[in-house]
Amino acid sequence: MSDLIVILIPLFPLLAVIANGLLGRRYAHDMAHRLAWGSVGLSFLCAITVFVDQLRFGVAREVVAYSWIFGGDLTINLAFLIDPLTCIMLLVVTGVGFLIHVYSVGYMHGEEGFTRFFTYMNLFMVSMLLLVMGNNYVVLFIGWEGVGLCSYLLIGYYYDRVSAAKAATKAFVVNRIGDAGFLLAIFLVFVNFRTLDYTQLFAQAGKLSPEMATAIALCLLVGAVGKSAQIPLYTWLPDAMEGPTPVSALIHAATMVTAGVYMIVRNHVIYDLSPVAMTTVAVIGGGTALFAATIGLVQTDIKRVLAYSTVSQLGYMFLGCGIGAYTAAIFHLMTHAFFKALLFLTAGSVIHALGGEQDIRKMGGLKSKIPTTHAVFFIGTLAIAGIPPLAGFWSKDEIMAHAFVHHHYVLYAMAAVGAFLTAFYMFRLTYLTFYGPSRVAHHTAEHIHESPMIMLGPLLVLAGLSVVGGFPGVPPESGWFHHFLHSVTVGTAEAGHATLSLILGLMGVATVIALSGWSLAHYLYSVKPGTADQWAARAPKVYATLLNKYYVDEFYDLLIVEPTKKLGKAWDWFDQTILDGVVRGIGTGTHLSSSIVVWIENHVIYGGLNAVGYANHLAARTWRKLQSGMVHHYAALIIAGLFILVHIVLLLWRGSIGLGVALK
Amino acid sequence: MLDSILLIILFSPFLGAVALMFVPNRQALRVRLTAAISAGVCCSASWIMFLAFDPAKSGYQFVQKFEWSKELGIAFYLGVDGIGAPLVLASGILLFAGIFISWHIKDRTKEFYIFLLILAAATIGVFMSLDLFFLYFFYEMSVIPMYLLLGVWGSHTKKYLEMTDPDGLKKRDSVAFLFNFASNSKEYAAMKLTLFLSAGAVLALMGILLIYKFSGLNTFDIVALKEQAHFGQPLTTIIWLLILYEIFPDATRELMPIAAILCIFSILYGGLVAFYARDTKYVIGYSSSSHMGYVFLGMAALDYISLTGAVMYMFAHAMATGMLFAMAGWVYDQTHSRDIPSLGGLVNRMPFVSGCFIIACMASIGMPGTVNFWAEVMILVGAWGRYPIQVLIAMVGIVLTMGYLFRMMRGLFYGPMEEQYSHARDAVSMVDRFPLLLMIACSVGFFLFPYYFYNVVRSGVDPLIARITQVVPLAAEGREASFVKREATSLTPSVSGNFTPVSRFTFHVSREKE
User: Fold this and answer.
1) Cα separation, B275 vs A211, whole angstroms
2) Do residues A222 and A318 make contact, with C-beta atoms less than 8 angstroms apart?
3) Beta strands A74-82; A61-71: pairing state
């Protein structure tokens, strides 16, 4: 029975995909969206059941749905692993997914391709669930590719926009680079263990040599970096904001982009064997957290600011993984899912209210016009900025404290500066959007309206979660959350040696950092608006560099895309000129040699024949005069002939004497 | 009935072609229906054959043998093993789909279908012939209708002819060469034995032929595929290679490293040119040659899993590329353009075709959800042990494949639409949709249930690799173990030491005398 429930979790959305995909055009929109969110809701209920089971029995178990390939040396099952980590991911994915589905009903109302949207969203849910539930790398990879595909389809949802199509292609190609690394890791695992099942693999992971562990961990990291938009493969995520806002919330904030973090935590047994890989993860994470935050400072598109903030927050999770704070990373993953989904959906609500406007320079003063949206957005901002006691504070502080306690001071400093910047740009966003004078275009301003209840409902639930979502992890390092996940992340350097005073001190510092970021934003955008522009004018190059995202896209274009095109062009030239040239050369050679033969035939063979013929002709022309047809000519010839004959006879007669003598 | 299933598969298109000769060209619908019925019989019979295939047995099944000329030792000898069965199935499916894809051909419909059916039958004949004479016969037979199909209904005819002719010529030579070895009997099994005994002596010559085959695929067959939408010519070439596997295990083992290098060339070369190409069919054609590189990689690694993957890849590739060509053809029919930059925004006009196109692209890059995924993963996993560098490069190739296929998809279907294409139609009627749905169903179906497919292929691959590498697979335990082991052990003394080819040859001869 409980096995069946596990299998039902991905099955419900799958059935909805099939129904909507095949029959979606036949029935009304209402039916399509009911199927979509209903199926995800049912999955959520099943996930709760599984979670409760897990709480009660606390044993990790494997559920085999069916045997995919079975042939002696190769066995691949469609198998699910149910353990505390999976349970947390299941609750986050189905829970947040359900809320976003409900929200989408309101947001996508009246859009073209309504059914298509929900089909893709459900397909995404199926893939994401396979990703977090799979008990072997193949199922993980199938989910991994599936979410990438759905991301592609949904970014390119507005297919008539060239920018959307380009962003979708970019996202998919960049992800695929990461996937190649992931695939390589799978090969390495298979070659070393001859199995791809987690349970069997982790049991015998100890026999790996450190070099091989490093190789596998780094290859996995390439995949994680691509999917979770870390340096150097982060460029696709901001562009991915071309998709509808619920997509950004679900895929590019709450669930899919955290898959890399999930994968690293899932494979932490391998990472623990390799200090090199761990350091790499930590450095990439810390670097991304800081780097993306600086770009976020100056962006003017509301969704792009949030996108860079997502990249930055994912950096914190990677940082957590890299310093061995796996539980904290998953904790931050969960709270981030709450508040970032909230922020994106609220941004969607703002965009909805303004009729599609996304530029924060054309917003302002919206607080009074859309008060509920403002309130939940403010909660989200407080949560992400790390103001206690909201969700983001606990999880982010835990990662930072872990870095400090374990003497990673450089990483701690990076994270701290990143936290300051985060608080600053999030409050900047809030001030520019909701406070100050209205800069909204006149015709838009008349139509500003609060979103319908179907959109506000999920927002309120997410706001509530953003407020209380951190409490399962309180007190730090020994909260309920940590005990629950203990069996998965066991064996890691989890227990802090920190004293209570140090922890409280670090909390204080984190709070001060967040508040100072807020104050700066308050000063620049509320107290003395215009100061920010002055600062930007004073350092135009820095501002331009940040605004242009450090020119990384241009750099990649120059370094990779253009050379590939040129190489393709060169090969094409090679194909057209050399290879075809060989064929043409053979043809030309044949033609040439045949023309020589023809010349020989014309001039030597026919020439010889003609010469003979012409000689004949010449002779005939001379000799034909003999046969003139005149009697006296003939008579003269006869006489001449007789004359000659007689001469010959005489000659012979004389000569015949000698002959006669001889005969005698 | 089941015993003669191969005859049904082979002769139903032939009979259809004969029947078509008696149908007047004016009755276009009757012409098409006749073709469809005969192709339908062929397709369903190949399905029956595939499902009735017993993966627990190794060796050839559904064997049919008719003496043709005892003096010359030629027999009409048909049979399929685990490698031939999926290829026959792929041909059957593609024939049936191809009939519907070319449903709207108005120019000399009757003749077109006659040639198409003959081509299909000849291709199927190649896959199931066990006699080298008939193998060659069918192979040559497929060239004639292809020649006519391209010449009359194709485009860019001249270039193709330029390239096919030397190709055909060389192949003729190679077969003549093989024939001379078996002058006492051309019956396949006997020939296999004779050739195997002589293998050492002809190693060098075979090497030249093998290299020719590989480079030949790179240069010549690209165009064949590029021009011919319905049947993948490379598939036919690969069957030749498989036969070489059968005949020359020693040569195969020693020459495969060269193949492994050449296949990388094929992957990157096809991929890069496709990246640059602007013509839809060129992109697909070059991508196909790039994909054949993966098949060769799978074959070159001489690994159970990778060779199984290679055979599955051939099937998967046939489905995916068949779809791509069909849809490029549909777009061309509707817009009269194959130039990617000038197209765009067609998703508005043809949602169904663009949806299928996405699926075909996904299949082509080996996304999970299509059988290509299993095939690709198996090739790479299997080849990793022997050729890690090639696998790494092949993975770069995957990214490249994605790049150009998605660029093409974006160019055709996304973005703003040109006014001039506003009349373009989607595939609406069931006749137009059926072939695409059929191929998608096969691709997705075998992804969900690869189990049977895998075992069928394994039954053909296991004895082959066991003979070449003398390593008995784990999978063979309990199934046909005795056969494989017997064969493997009997060969061990001949190759375990560092014999020169000559000494190996003499060894066999001396044993023969005993």
Assistant:
1) 36
2) no
3) antiparallel
In angstroms, the separation between the Cα of residue B78 and the nearest Cα of chain A is 28
Could you tell me the two tokens for B163?
């390239």
Strand partners, A269: none
Neighbouring C-alpha atoms within 13 Å toward the C-beta of A8: 17
> Is the pLDDT confidence value at B479 over 90?
no
Residues of B in contact with A563 (CB under 8 A): none
> A585 in contact with B at a CB cutoff of 8 Å?
no
**Whether pLDDT at A98 is above 90:** yes
Tokens of residue B351, six digits = 């949602």
The A residues from 357 to 386 touching B (CB cutoff 8 Å) are none
B456 to chain A: closest CA residue = A71
Tell me how far apart the alpha carbons of residues A629 and A111 are, in angstroms, rounded to a whole number: 111
Give dist(CA A543, CA A295) in Å, integer: 10
What is the mean pLDDT of the segment spanning B175-185? 31
Residues 6+ apart with CB under 8 A from B438: B93, B96, B97
Inter-chain contact B384–A187, Cβ cutoff 8 Å?
A: yes
Q: What is the 3-state secondary structure (H, E, C) of A174-213?
A: HHHHHHHHHHHHHHHHHHHHCCCEHHHHHHCHHHCCHHHH
Whether A583 sits inside 8 A of B162 (CB atoms) is: yes
Question: Does the structure show a pLDDT above 70 at B164?
Answer: no
Short-list B376, B200, B204, B180, CA closest to B293: B376
B325-367 pLDDT tens trace: 888 888 887 877 777 777 877 877 788 888 888 888 888 888 8
If you ran DSSP here, which 8-state letter would residue A65 be given?
E
**Helix, coil or strand: residue A70:** strand
User: Taking a C-beta distance cutoff of 8 angstroms, is the pair A143, A81 a contact?
Assistant: no
Percent of all residues in chain A with a pLDDT value above 70, rounded to a whole number: 93
Q: Give yes or no for A177 touching B (CB within 8 A).
A: yes
A17-21, A99-103, A445-449: least confident range: A445-449
- The answer to whether A172 faces chain B, any CB pair under 8 Å, is yes
Res A124: pLDDT: 92
| Closest by Cβ to A159, choosing from B276, B347, B477 | B347
What is the spatial distance between Cα A262 and Cα A318, in angstroms, rounded to a whole number?
10
The model's pTM is: 0.77
- State ipTM: 0.73
Query: Which chain B positions have a beta carbon within 8 Å of A73's beta carbon?
Result: 304-305, 473-475
**Cα–Cα distance measured from residue B327 to residue B349, given in angstroms and rounded to the nearest whole number:** 14
Q: Give contacts of B384 with chain A, Cβ < 8 Å.
A: 187, 190-191
Average pLDDT estimate for B150-165: 46
Q: Which residue has the higher pLDDT, B474 or B86?
A: B86
Count other Cβ atoms within 10 Å, centred on residue A11. 18
Angle B162-B165-B169 from CA coordinates, rounded to 5°: 150
pLDDT value at B298 more than 90:
no
In this complex, do B414 and A583 lie within 8 Å of one another by their Cβ atoms? Answer: no
Q: Name the more confident of A101 and A74.
A: A101
- With b for 16 or more beta-carbon neighbours within 10 A and e for fewer, the A643-653 pattern comes to eeeeeeeeeee
B96's CB contacts (< 8 A; 6+ apart) are B36, B39, B40, B42, B43, B435, B438
Average pLDDT, chain A: 84
pLDDT at residue A316 in the model: 92
Break chain A down into helix, strand, coil percent, rounded to 5: 80, 5, 20
The reported pLDDT for the residue numbered B173 is: 30
> What number is the average pLDDT over the span B255-261?
74
User: Pick from B272, B380, B474: which is nearest to A187 by CB?
Assistant: B380
What values do phi and psi take at A61, rounded to 5?
A: -140, 160
For residues B241 and B256, give the distance between their C-alpha atoms in angstroms, rounded to a whole number.
11
> What is residue A63's DSSP assignment?
E
Structure tokens at B179: 């024939």
